[in-house]
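Q: Hi! Curious about what Magnesium transporter MgtE looks like structurally. Here's the sequence.
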Amino acid sequence: MVKLNEQNREQYEQLILDTLQAEDRKQFRETFLELHPTDQIDIFVKIDEESRKRIYDYLSPEDFSHIFEGLEIDEQKNIYYELDENYSSEMFNNMFADDVADFLAVLKGGKAEDILLKMNQEEAQDVKELMSYAPETAGAVMTKEYVSISSTDIVSNVIEKLRNEAPDAETIYYLYVVDELEKLVGVISLRDLITAQPTEVIENIMSTRVVSVQDDMDQEDVAKLIKKYDFLAAPVVSKQNHLVGIVTFDDVIDILEEEATEDLGEISAAKGATDVNVSAFTAAKKRSPWIIMLMFFGLITAEVIGQFEDTLEAIVLLAAFIPLIMDSAGNTGTQSLAVAVRGLALGTIKKGSVGKMIRREFGTGLMLGLICMVVLGITVTIIHGHWMLALIVGFSIFCTLSIATVIGATVPLVINKLKLDPAIASGPFITTVNDILGLLIYFSIATALLDYL
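A: Let's find out. The predicted structure is below.
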């Protein structure tokens, strides 16, 4: 198998295009199939529809299934409608059940049912089982292509079984041991299997300390567990402890990417609109509720400023520092928000460490506030020649940053306590709240010291 680098990628791409244009089936298969599947996908997505149709003719459904699995969902939908029905049915039969289930889940109408009816009955049943689980659970993301063995088997028989079943399994580095009722009772690694005596009974060499996940466990918790134990795969069991599938490490990568994208959308108040392929109308529809809500928060900000109209009329120069106070409060609060959300996502913030984290953020806010107060005090005094104004602005920044860090760290914790996603304490939300707080502090201090200005 050839893995392309930047130097020979263009050379291979051109060679493959030339074989397609020359309609040289044999040369195309020899060149294309020796590439790594990832490189095959990279080349495939660049070619035009006419060339793609030749590829469907030159590659068997089994060959093409590896390419189809690696495409993004939107690309899969477009390619599917280019395929002959018999060709696509055989392709789905050669794909992993979880990948087929992911694709069928996005199809509308009765198209998914039509595809299942044309598939091999056993393969279709595995796909239906995966689609029956609630979204974003272990059952929904697991694969059915795994190798299970009996506790009464002997090593030589299991190795022979692997020779037959391994090509269709997603991973064979762990073999899961079940009893006569298909209940999970142990696990054995491929290394332990190979190094054991051929006549040894599996029950004597397997580990009974099996870490498994329930089929209804949230996918993010599954990913955390696999990361915690450095597993390549984790078995999925029903409430009766029947082995129903496995979640593999590549599934975990997809889960983490999906969850990170979701959290980014929440934090930026753009949930559902972070994909660049989403239309402008859809993006606006997804973002508008937050924007409208924040617009009303902006009215509160304006009302706060209006309440201190007399102070502003007395010293107009105070208005020049409003953006500075608001931006500093919002930025500091967002930084603390990121710390809290990341800690909750990784599970590093536990019950006993919440107070420690808040105290640390408060201490950080105090030091940031002190540094900014000193810098601003000197700068404002030099520029405006007014030490009292410098004191008001500097002390306001000190108080604002100290409190903003606590708010940024605390709000996600409260939301998490309410069993909601802490990421919904979005950056814009925290920023707006701290803007209002910063203005209240700033104008309260200025009003109190107005006689000295």
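A: A fun detail: Strands lie at 148-150, 174-178, 184-189, 213-214, 233-237, 243-248.
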